[in-house]
Amino acid sequence: MRSPYSTLNNSYKQQGIALIEILISVLVLGIGLLGIAALQSSSVRYSQSAQERTTALIMAGTLMEIMRSNPQVARAGSYAGDCESELLAEWALQLQESTGTTACPEVAWDAGAGVYTISINWQDDKVTGSTSFEIQVRP
Fold first, then answer.
1. Which burial class, exposed, middle or buried, applies to 93 when counting CB atoms under 10 A from its CB (0-12, 13-18, 19+)?
2. Residues pairing with 134 in the sheet
3. Which residues have a Cβ under 8 Å from the Cβ of 68 and sit 6 or more positions away?
4. Residues 19, 11 contacting (CB under 8 angstroms)
5. Which of 92, 98, 107 is nearest to 137 (CA)?
6. pTM, rounded to two decimals
7. pLDDT digit string (tens) for 56-107?
8. Where along the chain do its domains lie?
9. What is the DSSP string of the chain?
């Protein structure tokens, strides 16, 4: 006796497999889109962090130019200090506003070598947690 299924054509036997294939492809597409969204989010965070770093570096360069424009005062060590220093208070406030941080930069004077060291540290929770750099300038 012949099976009732042997007379049916092959397309009838495979009914429902296309639905499974579609569900799997939608799952793969969904995972891919989630990966793209995560990549975009990371890109935005790293861009913001790089912008803060660049701004801090530009502000440090600005302070270097201020020191170089007034070499007698700079060579006397008058620019050494932190946010509370009279000559640095306005610059430090501009640095904080432009980077969006509460960083208090420190400027140290080495009279023997005649070199200022500008240290800027801040919390960068978007990427690494802490960011810092130092620049030395000879007025």
1. exposed
2. 119
3. 74, 137, 139
4. no
5. 107
6. 0.68
7. 889 888 888 888 888 888 888 888 888 888 888 888 888 888 877 777 888 8
8. 10-137
9. ---TTTTS-HHHHTTTHHHHHHHHHHHHHHHHHHHHHHHHHHHHHHHHHHHHHHHHHHHHHHHHHHHHHSHHHHHTTTT-B-TTSTTTHHHHHHHHHHHTS----EEEEETTTTEEEEEEEE--TTTTS-EEEEEEE--
